[in-house]
Design brief:
single chain, about 425 residues, elongated, about 10% strand, about 60% helix, alpha+beta
């Protein structure tokens, strides 16, 4: 049937369906959503016992979670010893408490069926269920709450005593370390060195002792908080969560440090090789600058600038080679920080790169030489230094003039 034979209403409907299909709005996704119902956790007393993800017959995961919650609360109100067990059934594994069936764990309830089995999921649910039963019993026991309050007060007293001891020991340690460092620094040779180093080292030692005291204080406070939460049934799950998160973070940090040691070793080797190459190149350029050796265009005039360029190239190459082996180099935060620093250096160092390029051009074109009397713009004097950034002149009156290399390169130079 051609579009001319379609009624106006049907033509409009077909046009709307075509537009919705192009936008991905047709066919509707209600059927797909109905086939995969959302997961529903079974939470009792701030504890997540199990997460239902698969339907059981006509029951959705949400229906299973609500039915299981009612059964668990009813079982907690009845007398018993709180013994939990797991029994296999035709559909899955039945979790019971004191012989009363509560809920069924299906193979489809595992988040990753390939990695987690229904047996492990049911056993974990049984352990968490027993902990929730103990919390429910303790919440209804006034003596348990009173005992917990007494323990928290005792722990608060211990916390106050520990904080006082930490800061007292920190002050004594800081005084002892700074006094010993001051005596050691006084024995160093050189009056200027001995006068400048003590403030630096003493300040670092003092700040290190204060930082150590703050770290220990925060650790003691964290232990007190976790212990206090663990004394009451309503907050015991939070205390256990804090300890679990802290232990997981500590284990992750130790694992990261252990995994970073081989890469850090390779990075240190690369930097040591770069340092050795710069030392060898430095001795070579010193001989060229002293006139003892000449290598083509490399002579006493171009040796200092060439030395700076070669050293910078070696260190940049070493940094590029060692970058993948640095700790955290593969993380998104490290990559993002590297990109930000690169953009900042690219934007802010454009003028610096121009000055360096101008200095290199001045050196290799031999437009100026040390000891020559030159005139640049309105300035005249003897050339005392041709650096990577500025060229220095000394006038007849003894004044020193620093001219940017880009200014020297862009103006006429009168060489007398």
């Amino acid at each position: 049937m051609s579009p001319k034979n379609l009624a106006p209403g049907r033509a409009v409907r077909w046009a709307l369906l075509l537009v919705m299909a192009c936008l991905g709005l047709w066919p509707p996704a209600t059927v797909a959503a109905a086939e995969t119902p959302p997961e529903a956790p079974l939470v009792v007393g701030h504890r997540t016992i199990v997460v239902f993800r698969a339907p059981l017959g006509a029951l959705t995961p949400a229906d299973r979670a609500e039915d299981a919650r009612r059964r668990v609360l009813r079982a907690f109100d009845e007398p018993g010893e709180g013994w939990t067990s797991v029994k296999p059934q035709e559909q899955g594994l039945m979790v019971e408490i004191d012989g009363k069936p509560l809920f069924v764990v299906l193979p489809g309830d595992a988040a990753k069926p390939d990695e987690t089995s229904a047996d492990a999921l049911a056993n974990d649910a049984s352990r968490v269920l027993q902990a929730a039963w103990r919390d429910a019993r303790a919440a209804r026991d006034p003596r348990a709450n009173a005992t917990g309050a007494v323990k928290v007060l005792a722990a608060a007293a211990v916390l106050a005593l520990a904080l006082v001891l930490i800061w007292a020991v920190s002050r004594r340690l800081r005084d002892a370390v700074t006094t010993r460092l001051a005596r050691r620094v006084e024995t160093l040779p050189g009056a200027v060195l001995a006068s400048r180093l003590p403030p630096v080292f003493l300040g670092m030692a003092s700040h290190a002792c204060v930082l150590l005291a703050w770290g220990l204080s925060l650790l003691v406070l964290f232990v007190f908080l976790a212990f206090s939460l663990d004394q009451f049934a309503t907050t015991r799950a939070l205390g256990e969560g804090l300890l679990h998160a802290f232990s997981a973070l500590l284990l992750q940090s130790l694992t990261s440090v252990a995994e970073a040691i081989p890469g850090l070793f390779v990075a240190v080797i690369i930097f040591l090789v770069a340092w050795l190459c710069t030392r060898v190149c430095g001795e070579l350029f010193e001989q060229v600058a002293a006139g003892q050796l000449k290598l083509g265009m490399l002579d006493a005039h171009t040796a200092p600038a060439t030395r700076h360029i070669v050293n910078a190239s070696l260190w940049l190459f070493a940094l590029a080679m060692a970058y993948p082996y640095l700790p955290g180099a593969q993380t998104e935060a490290f990559k993002g920080l590297s990109v930000i620093l690169g953009i900042m250096v690219s934007i802010g160092a454009s003028g610096v790169v121009g000055q360096v390029a101008s200095g290199v051009i001045l050196v290799y074109t031999r437009a100026l030489s040390l000891g020559e009397y030159v005139g640049i713009q309105d300035h005249e004097g003897t050339v005392t230094e041709i650096g990577l950034f500025v060229t220095r002149l000394r006038t007849g009156m003894g004044a020193e003039i620093a001219l940017p290399n880009s200014l020297v390169l862009s103006n006429v130079t009168w060489n007398y």
